[in-house]
């Protein structure tokens, strides 16, 4: 033997985790389902942004009491900017949904009919505001316009006649 010290070193290499590791499949499925939900949800929501007169005429067509239409228009301008597809995340974890910013979890439910209005929140985001209006009237009948922070902030105490269109 030569003067060199020969030693054998064995290094263990951890097995390489594959992409489809059992623990990763759950995470991958969650990401896939979430992505699918976002794509489907965003693809199906077709909203509309009203003009003041367009909104006034629509509320008249839906038989809203003429004496309150000025309040409704002011509320809608303040809450959603007259945008039927608006969703607002609230500090309490609920969301304001649609033209009237109906509060999710209380009045509607995402994914299935529910809440006091027994409607899907997604149905409050399209151009058809008939179901939104029925639900908004329920809210108003139970709590008045005070149920909406936007109305309290921008409309309360103001003379709000029927907009001249």
Describe the structure.
The chain is mainly α. The chain has 5 helices and 3 strands; from the N terminus they run αααβββαα. It has a 3-stranded antiparallel β-sheet with strand order 1-2-3. Strand 1 and strand 2 form a beta hairpin. Helix 2 packs across helix 3. The longest helix has 23 residues. The radius of gyration is 27 Å and the shape is globular. It starts with 21 loop residues before the first helix and ends in an 11-residue tail after the last helix. About 11% of the residues have low confidence.
Strands, total number: 3
**Helical amount:** 25-40%
Strand order, largest beta sheet: 1-2-3
Average pLDDT over all residues = 82
Tell me about the biggest sheet? 3 strands, antiparallel
- Radius of gyration, Cα only, in angstroms? 27 Å
Q: Strand percentage, roughly?
A: under 5%
Give, in order, the helices and strands: HHHEEEHH
Low-confidence stretches: 27-44
How many helix segments?
5
Span of the ends, CA to CA: 107 Å
- Helix-strand category: mainly alpha
Assign an overall shape.
globular
What descriptors fit this protein?
165 residues, mainly alpha, 3-stranded antiparallel β-sheet, 39% helix
Helix and strand layout, with pairings?
Layout: H1 22-44, H2 52-61, H3 69-80, E1 87-89, E2 95-97, E3 102-103, H4 130-143, H5 149-154
Antiparallel strand pairs: 1-2, 2-3
In short:
With 165 residues, the chain is mainly α.
């Amino acid at each position: 033997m030569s003067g060199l010290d020969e030693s054998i070193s064995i290094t263990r290499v951890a097995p390489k985790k594959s992409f489809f590791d059992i623990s990763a499949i759950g995470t991958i499925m969650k990401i896939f389902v979430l992505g699918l939900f976002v794509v489907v949800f965003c693809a199906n929501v077709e909203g509309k942004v009203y003009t003041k007169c367009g909104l006034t005429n629509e509320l008249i067509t839906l038989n809203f009491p003429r004496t309150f239409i000025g309040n409704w228009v002011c509320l809608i301008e303040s809450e959603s900017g007259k945008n039927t597809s608006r969703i607002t995340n609230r500090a309490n974890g609920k969301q304001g949904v649609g033209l009237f910013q109906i509060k999710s979890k209380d009045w509607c439910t995402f994914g299935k009919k529910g809440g006091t209005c027994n409607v899907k929140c997604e149905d409050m985001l399209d151009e058809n505001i008939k179901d939104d209006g029925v639900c908004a009237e329920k809210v108003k009948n139970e709590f008045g316009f005070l149920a909406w922070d936007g109305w309290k902030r921008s409309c309360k105490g103001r003379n709000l006649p029927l907009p001249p269109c």
